[in-house]
Design goal:
Elements lengths: L1 E5 L2 E5 L2 E3 L5 E10 L3 E8 L5 E7 L6 H13 L9 E14 L10 E11 L3 E2 H7 L6 H20 L3 E2 L8 E4 L2 E4 L6 E2 L22 H7 L8 H17 L16 H10 L11 H10 L4
Antiparallel strand pairs: 1-2, 2-7, 3-4, 4-5, 5-6, 6-8, 7-8, 9-11, 10-13, 11-12
Helix pairs in contact: 3-5, 3-7, 5-6
């Protein structure tokens, strides 16, 4: 069994798990954790390939429904700039005791937790930028910007979902490809989302939330939509080029890249969503035209 601590509780996992694809995976080192789950490295027992294993540890409503929706969304997407889904399933997890009260060693609870296996990345964009403080060349980031935007357009148009959690930590780097990951907060454009998100719930990453997401968290009736994802993506692009998040009143003087790209990002970072590009497809077309400007 593999033991780990999560929210001051100690859990134990089996060393091997079986995915829906009938492949066995051996769990090894812990890679990270968030508010609702934990990520381990795992190995395909037959091929030796290394993957990332994400396990939901806090399965209460609506987290379990969101986790199942995350699996549904990423399993139907296939794009080089979206993290690759491999399989999913359920595993038996033992909650052993509270780490602050070791006298309860015999108080064990067995439960079934969902998991998803994905292609393991090398690092994330935040780590990459921290280790590369010099300005990144246009020819190095422009293709990544186009690829990430095409991936977001596929999420919007094919999966009919919005991400809501785009930030440097959730842009993973696999080789020389930047990929959108962590779809745990994604929402369908139609249907069930109103039942999973409170009217005043803060949805999105701190410092990278769109203005309408901030307003919604304050109880206002603003809608989080595709333009909100574009705002977050443009914020990340601005950060990549300037090494500063786009906070406050911005002008082209705050920009250090090609003027045509800066102009497009300033339009997409408008606080009034109606002044931004009307769709991901429109933003993508403008972005692709920049190389000819």
């Amino acid at each position: 069994m593999i033991e780990f601590e999560f929210n001051r509780e100690v859990y134990a996992l089996p060393e091997n798990i079986l995915g829906e694809n009938d492949c066995t995976y051996t769990i090894s080192e812990q890679l990270g954790k968030g508010g609702n789950g934990i990520v381990f490295e795992c190995e395909n027992a037959a091929t030796g390939e290394i993957f990332a294993l994400k396990i939901l540890i806090n399965p209460k409503y609506p987290r379990s429904q969101r986790f199942q929706r995350e699996i549904k969304v990423i399993s139907c997407l296939s794009h080089p700039h979206i993290i690759t889904y491999i399989t999913h399933g359920n595993m038996s997890v033992i909650r052993k005791h509270s780490s602050s009260n070791l006298r309860n060693l015999n108080n064990q609870q067995k439960c079934i937790q969902p998991f998803v296996v994905m292609r393991k990345a090398d690092s994330n964009l935040r780590e990459f930028l921290t280790n590369n403080l010099s300005q990144i060349r246009f020819e190095d980031y422009y293709g990544q910007f186009v690829g990430l935007t095409r991936a977001l357009e596929q999420l919007h148009s094919e999966a009919r979902a919005i991400h809501r959690d785009i930030k440097p930590d959730n842009i993973l780097i696999s080789g020389d490809i930047w990929q959108i990951s962590d779809f745990g907060l994604c929402a369908q454009l139609e249907g069930e989302e109103k039942h999973l998100t409170r009217a005043d719930e803060a949805v999105g990453p701190r410092y990278w939330m769109s203005p309408e997401a901030v307003s919604k968290a304050m109880g206002l009736a603003d809608e989080i939509n595709c333009c909100s994802d574009l705002f977050q993506l443009a914020s990340v692009f601005w950060f990549v080029v300037t090494h500063r998040p786009p906070i406050g009143i911005l002008t082209i003087d705050d920009w250090s890249g090609p003027p045509s790209l800066g102009k497009l990002l300033l339009e997409t970072l408008q606080h009034n969503s109606s002044r931004r590009p009307s769709s991901t497809a429109e933003f993508l077309k403008s972005l692709e035209d920049i190389k000819f400007a």
